[in-house]
Amino acid sequence: MGTHRLPGIVTTDRRFAVPLDHDRPGGPRISVFAREVVAAAKADQDLPWLLFLQGGPGFGSPRPLGRDTWLDRALDDYRVLLLDQRGTARSTPANRRTLARVGDAKAQAEYLAHFRADSIVRDAELIRRELLGDARWSVLGQSYGGFCSLTYLSFAPEGLREVFITGGIPGVDATADEVYQATYRTVLAKNAEYYARFPEDAERVRAIGRRLRDHDERLPDGSPLTLERFQAIGIMLGMSTGAARMHYLVEDAFDDGPELTDAFLEQVAPLVSFASHPLNAYLHEGCYAQGPGATAWSAQRVRADFPEFDVLDDGAPLLFTGEMVYPWMFEQDPALRPLREAAELLAAREDWPPLYDAARLRANTVPVAAAVYHDDMYVDRELSLRTAALVPNLRTWITNEHEHDGLRAGPVLDRLIRMVRGEI
C-alpha cells in the first residue's frame, strides 16, 4: 500500500479482493484498486468518506495531480475514494490479452457479464464495510457513475449517506432503442451547433469524407481509418470544448496535397481506438439492458431511422455520430478484434438481470442532488427527468450553463452539496 504526497493532498493506494460473481462468493476472485485522497492539512482527521464513481463504462478513475477540478471542493469536507471500477485501470483488467485466458467466446461473454453496475455496486459495498464498518458514505456519480448510483439506491441504500449525480440519471425503464432514439436526435443538434460555429469546416469535413470513401487510409497502428470510423469522433461534440477541438483537428487534415497529413492521422488515432477502455465497447449497450430481450446492436439498428448520417456529397454537411458502439468497430479496431465473437454473444444475450428496483426507488429516503444538463448529448434530459420524478428526495438542478463535463467546473459539486444540505 503506497502513500504519496502531492501538492495539497495525500494519496494512499488500496486494493481489495472481490468475487467475480457475487452470487458465488466462494468462486473466482478479482482485484479492485482504489486511491484514497485527503487534503494534506486534514490527513489525520476523522472525515466522512466520499466514493467517486467514474463515467464510462470502462474508464478508470481520475489520477489526481493535486487539489484540481472538483476534488478541490470535495476535499474541504471529505476523504475521497477514487474507485477503478472492476475491469478498468489498475483493477484486474478485462482486455483482449486477459480475456484470451478466460476461454472461448462463450466463456468470455459470461465473464464480461459480471462487469456491469450491479457488480460494481456490490464491490463498493464490500469495500465500504472493510473501510468503514457499519458507517455510511457519500457517493458522487459522474455520467455512468450516476447510473451506478441509481443501482446503489436500488439495491444497497443502507450504505449511503447522500448521493450527488452529475449528468448521469439513467432512464431506469428505458430500453436501449429508446435511449438511442433520443441521443441520435441530440447528436444531430450538436452537429448543427458545430457547423454554425465553424461553417468553413463543412467543406473540409466533406473532403476528408471523400478521401476516406475513395482511398485506403491507415492510422499509425496500421488499422483502417474508414469513413464510419472518422464519423465516430463526433463523440467529442458533447463536451464543453468539443466543437473547438474538432475545428482544430480538421484544419490539420490536409497540407499541399490530397493525402491526409500524418499530424491529422496521429491525432485521430486515440479518438477511434478502444485500447485504453475496451470495456466501454463490450458493455456499452449492456449498461441499458435488463430483463428479457437482447440489445441486438441497438445503435446500429436505430441509426437506420436517421439517414442523415449516411449523406455525403450532396452539399449537406457530413454528420458525425456520438456515443454509439457499432459491430464494425470489432473488425476495424485491433484492440477489439479478438473479442468480436464475445461481443456478438453479449449483443444477443436475452437474460440480463435488473439494474434498478423501481419499488425501492419509489421508497427512497437517501438525500440525492443531481445536475441534469439541458443539452446533454450522452444522457437524455427527458429520460433523466422521468426517473427523477420517480424517486423521492431527489432534487434536480437543470442547467444549460454546462455540458456533460460540467463536473470539472468546481461550482457544480458545490451547488449539489448545498442542495443536499438544504442551503439552496
> Judging from the principal axes of the Cα atoms, what is the shape?
globular
Mean pLDDT: 97
CATH superfamily of the largest domain: Alpha/Beta hydrolase fold, catalytic domain
Give the low-pLDDT segments.
Answer: none
CATH architecture designation of the largest domain: 3-Layer(aba) Sandwich
Quote the beta fraction: 15-25%
Report on the biggest sheet: 9 strands, mixed
Ends distance: 40 Å
Q: What's the CATH topology name of the largest domain?
A: Rossmann fold
What strand line-up does the widest sheet have?
A: 1-2-3-5-4-6-7-10-11
What is the class of the largest domain in the CATH system?
Alpha Beta
The radius of gyration computed from the alpha-carbon positions, rounded to a whole number of angstroms, is 22 Å
Number of helices: 17
| Percent helix range | 25-40%
Q: Find the count of extended strands (DSSP E, 2+ residues).
A: 11
Number of domains: 2
**Helix and strand composition category:** alpha/beta
Report the order of strands and helices.
EEEEHEHHHEHEHHHHHHEHHHEHEHEH
Please give a handful of descriptors for the protein shown.
424 residues; alpha/beta; two-stranded antiparallel sheet; 17 helices
What does this structure look like?
The chain has 424 residues and is an alpha/beta fold. It has two domains: 3-172 and 355-420, Alpha/Beta hydrolase fold, catalytic domain (Rossmann fold); 176-352, no CATH class. The chain is built from 17 helices and eleven strands. The chain has helices spanning 69-77, 96-100, 105-112, 117-132, 144-155, 176-197, 201-214, 227-231, 242-250, 262-272, 278-283, 298-303, 329-332, 340-348, 358-362, 381-388, 410-420, and strands spanning 3-6, 9-19, 29-39, 49-53, 79-83, 137-142, 160-166, 291-292, 351-352, 368-373, 394-399. The strands form two sheets. The protein has a nine-stranded mixed sheet, with helices on both faces. A two-stranded antiparallel sheet has the order 8-9. Helix 5 links the parallel strand 6 and strand 7 (160-166). Helix 3 (105-112) crosses helix 14 (340-348) and helix 4 packs across helix 5. The chain is globular. The model has no long low-confidence stretch (mean pLDDT 97).
